Fold these 2 entries.
Entry 1:
Amino acid sequence: MDIKIALAGNPNSGKTTLFNDLTGSRQYVGNWPGVTVEKKEGRLKGHDDVIIQDLPGIYSLSPYTLEEVVSRTYLVNEKPDAIINIVDGTNIERNLYLTTQLMELNIPMVIALNMIDLVRKNGDRVDTKALSEKLGVEVVELSALKGEGSKDVAEKAIAAAKSGNLGNRPNILSGEAGEAVKAIEEILKGKVDDKFLTWNAIKLFERDSKAVKAMKLDAVTRAEVESLIEKCEKALDDDSESIVTNLRYNEITGITAETVKKGRAKGELSISDKIDRIVTNRVLGLPIFAVIMFLIYAIAMGGWSISIGTAATDFTNDVIFGEWVPGLFDSILGALSITEGSVLYGLIQDGIVAGVGAVLGFVPQMLVLFLLLSILEDIGYMSRVAFVMDRIFRQFGLSGKSFIPCLVATGCGVPGVMASRTIENERDRRMTVMTTTFMPCGAKLPIIGLIAGAIFGGSPLVAASAYFIGIGSIILSGIILKKFKAFAGQPAPFVMELPAYHIPSLTGVLRATWERGWSFIKRAGSVIVISSIIIWFLSSFGTVNGQFGMVDNLFEDENLVTEEYVADLADRMDVPVEDVTPMDASLLAGVGNTVAPVFKPLGFGNWKPTVATVTGLVAKEEVVGTFGVLYNFDGHAEQAVDEETGELLFDENGEPVMAELSEEGDEIWDRVAKDFTPMSALAFMVFNLLCAPCFAAIGAIKREMNNAKWTWAAIGYMTVWAYVLAFITYNVGGVITGEHGFGLGAIVGIALIAGIIYLLVRKGYQADDSVQSLTSVNANAA
Amino acid sequence: MMPLSMAGTGDMVTIQMIKGTDEVRQHLAELGFIAGEEISIVNQVSGNLIIQVKDSRIALDRSMANRIYI
């Protein structure tokens, strides 16, 4: 039989660090409460029969947030063989509150007194032995970050699990309350699991609705219990829940008074407090945040000399995947006498190398971004940002807590969506899940990079506008959605623990960066390779004038490619006759062309961008991967473009001037540029940034919503929003910039803007459930 | 008695009473906010507070701080 050991403790107390240390696993650790949003299992190193279970951090076993529900359900229903209760040594009193509740579960337990190095550094002294005796539970000193004591903790926990010894635990409930609970225990005997008799009796006494429901007691028993509770409440002049809470804290204060000596006087400011005074300052808070974010994106994606990310990505794109890799494959293929024009050559060079290369080129930039975001998380700045942003987000009906998911989503949408679990209010949580992926995630950077590079000469304004569009969409959606009945009501009050700042650990940050980057590279090696092959196949084969084969080869047959045929093809594919390429006859062109009318009103109704948009569902970076394959054809002369004005060049006779084929590199950009106007390119970017996220993120949304209807509502909302904004960008934006004249599109666009404004300012549904809502308390209290 | 939201940066105060629904009071209690507890205000930004309670820093918005009386 396997031994199951659960790790339980307050948020940010170091559970995940200990879990990683014990299991050799590499779960992500960040310095903000709520990093572990789902339970994770691992086997203890060196003990294959011991399963360690990492639970989300909780303050108590009364379920207030979703994480608390997850942890409590596990502990009560799965009944682990032992619990390792991690107690933050720098904050013993508060942490022991949960301990007193865990002890009532009657499960063998070990207390790991974590951050013992910090305790010593602060000049605090903890008498571990005395603490152990008073609690009746073994207390082991631990520094999870340094790996000191973790083996000891695990061994003691295994011993406790094997012996089943509960120790001599103190009886916290004394006096009237103690008697009432005893009496309830008598009533419950035989009705619930014997092991959980005390736990159930206390929950019943506290009137914990979830636990009461789970016990399924008959009306007579409940009435009997209720009269006991009421009697006790009358005697003590307080409600039962508060009575228990006070008894717990009394016991804890008694225990710590004798065992813990603080080096710092109460109320004295720690370094973290002093830093907080500055970074959460009324005036400086926002500018500091803005400067930090600006620096991060400047370093990762800007166009300046500090922009390491951009420089590395340019090098990778232009040199590694522009010259070295294709050159290398050329010589390998040459040595194997696979010649250009053969199917295999096309598959490898035009399919895999072009597709995967287009995606991998952005890895350096992404790694820099991930690294900087990891540092920010590790320091402990995230929860401060939530506090600073709360004031602003509240104006739009969102809580500051919604900002953490958004910030995490700038790295990747999947953890971003999952980070929404710390939001207590169900409506706010749903709304955050629906809007978080509007943020441009790491995988959307290549799209931004492509559009900025190909159409806008690498202007940093494009990237800036992408973030602006993302945040703007979240805020506007917040206002709009709040007016609907399903989301109406004030956001839940903001309560959040701010962890102590610490210097980021080099290994931790590098590990987090590498993991996020690696999953990206892995995707490039798996899904991206496969979809690149599929895209290449579908784009290379097709029917030319009734004959099926590789379109490139078929096009060389002059009997097939008649003038009539080309004219017909140009007409079907909506391209000028002189621009027809063999690919336009491919299977993919046919499929894309069928769907393309959907995007016609957005200005990119050509089959190539259509296909790229659809493949973006696989992974957003695949949009660029697809472009890599589809625009990687060669051998056809192109019309030259005036470098200054960007206009096509013609000679004196009105004949187009053909460009000389440049070496690899920016060539793809030139071809992409031909299919777009500035506004249609922007519309393409807007749509791809905002529409349904990749399958991985859709999966995360489905898990968080836990409801098919809400999942579809979320995806539907995102796609409609994306379509509307892209439509406005192309049609109204085009008129403003003079790209095309005023017409039906502009009229519809203006109507859509009016519609959005109406949704923003209309008087929304007024929640009359305020009697039950948390916020009503405000009115009562004031 | 006055609501905690009226306290200023640097003040050290004792909680007298907490109002609100059971759920909210319970959550505040879990975080260390109970009657009789001495707390200090690390920072105050238009009613939103960062409070040092039981050796941890907790951020509260104004609506929450209004329920705690000092």
Entry 2:
Amino acid sequence: MQQFLQQTINGLSIGGVYALIALGYTMVYGIIKLINFAHGDIFMFGAYVGMIAVMNFNMPIYLAFIIAMAVTALFGVIIERVAYKPLRKSSRTAALITAIGVSFLIQNGMLMIMGANIYAFPQVIPNRFFTVFGLRLNMLQLVIFATSIALMIILQFVVSKTKLGRAMRSVAVDKDAAALMGVNVDNVITITFAIGSALAAAAGIMVGLYYIKVFPFMGFTPGLKAFVAAVFGGIGIIPGAMIGGFAIGLIETYVAGYGSTLYKDAVVFIILILILLVKPSGLLGKNVKEKV
Amino acid sequence: MSYLTVEHLTKNFGGLSAVSNVSISVNEGELVGLIGPNGAGKTTLFNVLTGVYKPTQGKVILNKDGKSIELSKLPPYKITHQGVARTFQNIRLFKDLTVLDNVKIAMNQQAKYGLFGALTRLGKFYASEADIEQRAHEFLKKVNLDDLAYDLAKNLPYGKQRQLEIARAMATGAKLLFLDEPAAGMNPQETHALTEFIAKIRKEMDLTIVLIEHDMSLVMNICERIFVLDYGKLIASGTADEVKNNRKVIEAYLGEEE
């Protein structure tokens, strides 16, 4: 029991990170029906920016979060404007393949600029442990969990209560009708990329803090897992991505804790196959027939 | 000077001329009908007027507050900001959102706060949101939909969805309304109720309305002037009686006499 609770705590903290990345996938998909395969690399970019802010500019970690989120948001917007916007009216396959190309471009661009060496993210969060009811709580885990929850609450607030959120929801349902109701669709898409990228940057810093390593290909596995999380919850549905992220984080941790660390990645993809077989629209998704 | 002026408007799709050389003018406060057989180019004309399509030739000018605005140069959302809105032939509500949200989205441009204000809860965020919420409810009361405010749009009965679409278009703050077959799929009672509804909102809100309709009882009843399109060309215009007895119109609908 003790071990189970301990694993649950571990799972929740890494799950929060997956959820943040998954939100970017799901928001972009919800609004332009594009699986942004470069999203994992945007996450990597955010980790680098955060690391440079702390390492080279000696910024406190909260400031590093803000700077990394802002810079990465801008980065996401540039990607959208340069790579995806010109393809808005072409086939979804063209955009998807472009996304894969963008992913390679960011990975190798980072390789060129920062080199192949693995950086160690400065451990700025004191390595303290609290013992509560016999459970060991790590300060770092608490920070990660609290930050991801806080960001999700802010996002939920923006989407459900503000005019931007309403505009986003209307564009997700019907772009043309939204434009004719006075919504600036291009702006809404741009802001969606900015928000998704900012969340990915936050996740990037957290992974940097948690696993210490920062390298150009670090976005690959978390990106794929977050994608699975988004599909698990129902792609395009924001609460689905949150639930999916935590679910994948928990499952992965239980598998590593009770089975073998070797299997934890494989299990995530087995889950993806099972979802696609049993409920392709995901946990919260509705089965909608595509209109001809 | 007329409120809306369409000058020599042409819209080609490849070799097909969906609208060719159409000139129309609508005065402020008028209620005009646009009729014509299927495929005459009525909806295409609406799509050009609201910015969905760019015209191949010609222009669309709105005279507002003594200024001439060339609508044909603006993207759809900016045309909406100029006080022009529309409904659709096949209903295009935001069907997974509530009735209230549908109206609030249309009112978005009137909300005066930015994302920063919303996040920091400073600025006018709360006041502005409360104001929009209240005015959205008022709008819904006007169209008798307020009791359904929290239902999803897709769950409304058909006639109510049509009403909501009109309410949503009005909520953008529009003074010029394009209604694309508002009575499509309605039975005679519903059509009658809709006719009264259109007359009522027009009077209460000083609207100028252009409507496409196949239901002649509705068109002949409330439209002060009627334009007739056939094969993309304007073949007649005038009052209901004038149009009814126009030879070209009869030919377009019934075919030429041998």
